[in-house]
From TrEMBL:
Organism field: Saccharothrix tamanrassetensis
Superkingdom of this protein's organism: Bacteria
The protein's name: Potassium transporter TrkA
């Protein structure tokens, strides 16, 4: 029996586990790692009941409450679905901090999104794989730069591609290739900044039209799609069934790309006429619009952060990540105590 860990008990982790309970085609024990015994146990109960309801007797969900290092020490792979910065904070607890994130871009939360993924990746056995569900468009290249191998991410382009697939009426994504970034979850200000997509290697002239329903949907509901797509991916990795899909952060690259997955191996499947360098350049331009660019060993935040952390806005080496993270924690703590009206200037970007 395979054994994997799912880190977190929030919306995405629940969507993944509830979906995996129904779609798993191979025997697997899913160790769900959380901080609350009540939430972790409830998630495992519901997922187990769903698996039983569809006759998936080889799928088991086991709760674990505590630090992540112990449960991931003996697994085939891990999916990280938790971070120290919620994307929903602007809705649940608006403050000067969430206003800054809106102005500067979600990218300024990169250190918070990466903390737990780094811990998990460093604790995994060498033979195991890591899939990251927390801002993989930027976190995955950071992990790779820090020497932590990462297979790919989930969400973001996977959600966009599933939405486009549905709009096109395609049975799978073998004919659909997309380049897209987390920032493309929302309609860009300029048409030229829109996602790029191809069907049968032919460019789709208005790819944004395929994403209208997704962009109008309640953001809190979209994890139902991203979580289901993640479950399909995990099952393919475990079973060895090859799939052609579109994923964020494959092999530690920035942004999202069309890929071919075969077990715990992944490769790009770019459309004809698009080089790897072209695809990366497109995603790095999108990354700048999202507030952070990870380029090799260097991280650059956008100019909106300059007022608060000028050294970070100008760029820093990944070796300084711990210090920048500490300063961001202090900044966040301070701004959370101020109302959003005290933020000055700029245009707020949704996250």
């Amino acid at each position: 029996m395979h054994r994997i860990a799912v880190i977190g008990t929030g919306d995405l982790a629940r969507a993944v586990c509830y979906s995996l309970a129904a779609v798993a085609t191979t025997s697997v024990e899913v160790v769900v790692v959380g901080r609350s015994a009540e939430k972790t146990g409830q998630l495992c109960y519901i997922a187990s009941a769903r698996a039983a309801a569809v006759g998936r007797t080889g799928v088991a969900f086991t709760p674990f409450v505590g630090d992540v290092e112990q449960p991931v020490a003996d697994v085939d792979g891990a999916l990280v679905c938790a971070s120290s910065q919620s994307p929903w904070e602007r809705l649940t607890a608006p403050s000067a901090w969430t206003a800054l994130v809106g102005r500067a871009g979600f990218g300024i939360t990169l250190p918070f999104q990466a903390e737990l993924a780094l811990r998990v990746g460093r604790a995994l056995p060498e033979r195991s794989w890591l899939v990251n569900g927390c801002f993989p468009d930027a976190v995955n290249p950071l992990l790779a730069a820090l020497g932590v191998p990462v297979l790919c991410g989930v969400g973001n382009i996977a959600l966009l591609a599933a939405s486009a697939q549905a709009a096109l009426g395609l049975p799978d994504q073998a004919r659909l290739r997309m380049l897209a970034h987390h920032v493309h979850l929302h309609e860009p200000a300029e048409r030229a900044e829109e996602v790029r997509a191809w069907c049968d290697d032919e460019p789709i002239s208005a790819p944004g039209d395929l994403l209208i329903a997704q962009r109008r949907a309640e953001r809190t509901e979209l994890n139902q799609i991203g979580g289901f797509a993640a479950a399909v991916l995990l099952d393919a990795v475990l079973s060895g069934t090859p799939i052609e899909t579109n994923l964020p952060g494959p092999l530690g690259l920035p942004g999202g790309y069309p890929v071919r997955v075969s077990g715990p191996a992944i490769e790009l499947r770019l459309p004809a006429g698009v080089s790897r360098a072209d695809a990366i350049a497109f995603n790095q331009r999108a990354a700048a619009a999202d507030g952070v660019v990870v380029d090799g060993d260097r991280v650059v935040f956008g100019p909106a952060l300059a007022e608060f952390l000028p050294e970070a806005a100008e760029g820093f080496d990944i070796g300084d990540l711990d210090g920048v993270t500490a300063r961001l924690y202090a900044l966040r703590d301070r701004l959370r105590g101020e109302p959003p009206a005290q933020q000055r200037g700029g245009v707020e970007m949704p996250v």
